[in-house]
Amino acid sequence: MLDDFVFSLSVALPIFLIMLSGFIFRKKKIITVEFIDAANFIIFYLALPIKLFNSVAESSVSESFDIRFIGYALSATVISVILAYFLSIFTIDEKSKTGAFVHGSFRGNFIYVGFSLLENVTGSIGAKTPLIVAFVIPLYNIMAVLLLIFTNPSNKSKNQIKNALKNIITNPFIIAIILGSAASLVDFKLPLMLQNTADYFDVLATPLALLTIGATFRIDKLFVDIRTSIFATIFKLIILPALAVSTAIAFGFPNEEIFLIYVLFGVPSAVVSYVITAAMDGDQDLAASIVMMTTLFSVFSITLFIFIFKIFAIV
C-alpha cells in the first residue's frame, strides 16, 4: 500500500511542482507578462495542436471512435452542469454569483492539467483523449455561454453564442484532430525531418502549459468569497469525479476509459472559465477564486483518487 501511495504522489506532485516553478519565476520576474502571452500563443496555436495531431495520426481512428463512450462523456457533462446549478441554489445567496459558481464547478482544465496527468500515469494521452477534445470541449463553450446568459439576464452579449460556435469551428485543437484523423485514415506519414520537429513541439506542450498556469496564479484571489469557492472546490474535485467514475464503473467501461473519465471530471477548474465569465459580465472575482482554489487543492484530490485507483487496479 505504501508503494501505491508513493506512486500516486509521484503522479500528482510533479505537475504542481512545475506550476509552483512558474509561480516562483513570475514572483522573481524571470517570467514576465510578455512571456506568458507569447507562451500561451505557442501552446494554443502550435504545441498542443501538434500533440493532438500526433496522437490522432498515430492511432487507428476507426478503432478508437466509440459512440458509447462519447455519449457517456457528453451526457455526464450536461448532468454535471445541472447538478452544479442545483447546488448553487442551496449555497449561494447572491444570484449574480451563480454563473461563475456553476461554470467553475463543471469546467475542468482537461487539456493542460489533464494531458499531464494522463502522460504521468499511462505514458501518453491515449487514443480516446482526442475524442474528448473534439466533442466535450466544444460543449463546454456552448454550455458556458448559455449558462452565463441564463444566469445574467442583463447580459447584452447575446451574440456570444454565435461567437462560441465560430470559435469552435476555428479552434486549432479541432482542426488538428480533423487533420490527424485524415492522416490516420489514409496512413499518411510526415517526412522524418518534419516529424522530428513536430515531436519537439509535442514534448514542449505540457511543461510550458503548466509553467504558464503557475505564472498566472494569484494568492489574493484565493480569499475572494472563500465560502462559495470551498463549495465549488469540493464539488469539482471530489463529488463530481466520484459520481462520474462510479457511474462509469456501473456502466461497465474498461479501466482505461474509467481513468480518462476521472481525468475529464477530476482536474481543477480551467483558467478559461475565468476569461469567459469576465467577458460575459459574470462574477470574475469568484471565477478566479474557484480556479485558484481548485488548482491548489487538486494536488491532494488527485493523489487520493490515483491511490484508490491503484488499490483497485484501475491504473
TrEMBL record:
**Biological process according to GO:** transmembrane transport
* Places the protein is found: Cell membrane
Where is it mostly found?
Answer: membrane
Q: Which residues cross the membrane?
A: 6-26, 38-57, 69-88, 100-118, 130-152, 164-186, 198-217, 229-253, 259-279, 286-313
UniProt keywords, alphabetically: Cell membrane, Membrane, Transmembrane, Transmembrane helix, Transport
The question of whether Transmembrane is a record keyword is answered with yes
**Membrane topology summary:** Multi-pass membrane protein
Domain of life of the organism in this record?
A: Bacteria
Cell membrane as a keyword?
Answer: yes
Q: Which InterPro entries match?
A: Mem_transp_PIN-like, Na+/solute_symporter_sf
Q: Which GO terms describe its cellular component?
A: plasma membrane
Looking at the Swiss-Prot or TrEMBL record, what is one Pfam family this protein matches?
Mem_trans
Similarity annotation: Belongs to the auxin efflux carrier (TC 2.A.69) family.
This chain belongs to the protein called AEC family transporter
UniProt source species: Halanaerobium polyolivorans
